């Protein structure tokens, strides 16, 4: 029993440590725990969870408490010849197993982020496995946040998903559309970026457009090297 108590205490400390890392640490932990899971296995995990998971206040299944006016709007649009989609920053692997049953939207019309996968032969079967491998650089140039449905691509939630896909010392570069918004909106966008990427630089041009470059690690700029690169014949033109 003493050994079990020690294991329990250790687990509690590890959980507190993970929670102390905030949302970023939890996202990375989720990605790591599902690495090596086949797409079919992950879909079963989602389906099994939705079959039993209930809202803590209502006691009803989450799939039973969907916003009814939204369902009615979707039905109306389809009845009048429109094709409906779900476009989300959430993972398609989690959404697609249940969206058709709940919203009447087939899985191929669900668009969102996706867990990276790799093709592998296991036990004589060809399977797609989730892959924890990340990227050195993620670049973003969406339309301005004033465009319909685009604001989420400038949110801290979205930047957290982008961060989860980075390798150590990786970067995220985000275009900042200054001409389409006021100063307060711009400050709000920058705050959302800095919430996830505490180390960031801002670059600008004579056209009054800006680029945010962020990382979780300190960014050291080698100014002489940058100047040398731009001074190469044609270098500044290619980078413009």
Task: Describe the protein's topology.
Layout: H1 2-20, H2 22-34, H3 39-52, H4 68-79, E1 86-91, H5 92-95, H6 99-103, E2 110-113, E3 117-122, E4 125-130, E5 135-140, H7 156-164, E6 166-176, H8 183-196, E7 199-204, E8 210-215, H9 223-231, H10 235-239
What does this structure look like?
With 240 residues, the protein is α/β, with parallel strands linked by helices. It has two domains: 36-131, no CATH class; 134-240, Rossmann fold (3-Layer(aba) Sandwich). The chain has ten helices and eight strands. The strands form three sheets. The chain has a four-stranded mixed beta sheet with strand order 5-6-8-7, with helices on one face. A hairpin with a 2-residue loop joins strand 3 and strand 4 (125-130). Helix 2 (22-34) crosses helix 7 and helix 7 packs parallel to helix 8. The longest helix has 19 residues, at 2-20. It is elongated and about 60 Å long. The termini are far apart. The relative contact order is 0.09. Mean pLDDT is 75; it is low at 1-15 and 17-27.
| Annotation field: number of helices | 10
Stated plainly, the CATH topology of the largest domain is called: Rossmann fold
**Strand tally, please?**
8
Gross morphology:
elongated
CA-atom Rg in angstroms:
22 Å
User: Quick one: CATH superfamily of the largest domain?
Assistant: Vaccinia Virus protein VP39
pLDDT averaged residue by residue: 75
Order of helices and strands: HHHHEHHEEEEHEHEEHH
Poorly predicted tracts of residues: 1-15, 17-27
**End-to-end CA span:** 66 Å
The total domain count is 2
Read across the widest sheet, the strand sequence of neighbours is: 5-6-8-7
Largest sheet: 4 strands, mixed
Strand content: 15-25%
Q: In the CATH hierarchy, what is the class of the largest domain?
A: Alpha Beta
CATH architecture of the largest domain: 3-Layer(aba) Sandwich
As a percent range, the share of helical residues equals 40-55%
């Amino acid at each position: 029993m003493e050994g079990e108590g020690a294991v329990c205490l250790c687990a509690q400390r590890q959980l507190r440590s993970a929670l102390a890392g905030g949302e970023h640490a939890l996202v990375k932990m989720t990605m790591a725990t599902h690495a090596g899971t086949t797409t079919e296995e992950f879909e079963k995990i989602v389906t099994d969870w939705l079959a039993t998971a209930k809202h803590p206040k209502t006691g009803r299944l989450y799939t039973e408490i969907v916003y009814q006016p939204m369902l009615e709007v979707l039905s109306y649009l389809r009845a009048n010849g429109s094709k409906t989609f779900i476009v989300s920053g959430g993972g398609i692997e989690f959404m697609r197993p249940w969206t058709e049953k709940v919203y009447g939207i087939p899985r191929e019309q669900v668009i969102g982020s996706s867990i990276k996968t790799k093709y592998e032969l296991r036990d004589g079967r060809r399977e797609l496995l989730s892959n924890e491998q990340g990227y050195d650089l993620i670049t973003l140039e969406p339309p301005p946040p004033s465009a319909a449905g685009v604001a989420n691509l400038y949110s801290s939630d979205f930047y957290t998903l982008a961060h989860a896909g980075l390798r150590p010392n990786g970067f995220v570069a985000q275009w900042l559309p200054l001409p389409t918004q006021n100063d307060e909106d711009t400050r709000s966008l920058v705050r959302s970026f800095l919430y996830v990427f505490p180390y960031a630089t801002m670059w600008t041009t004579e056209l009054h457009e800006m680029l945010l470059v962020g990382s979780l690690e300190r960014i050291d700029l080698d100014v002489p090297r940058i100047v040398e690169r731009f001074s190469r014949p044609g270098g500044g033109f290619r980078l413009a």
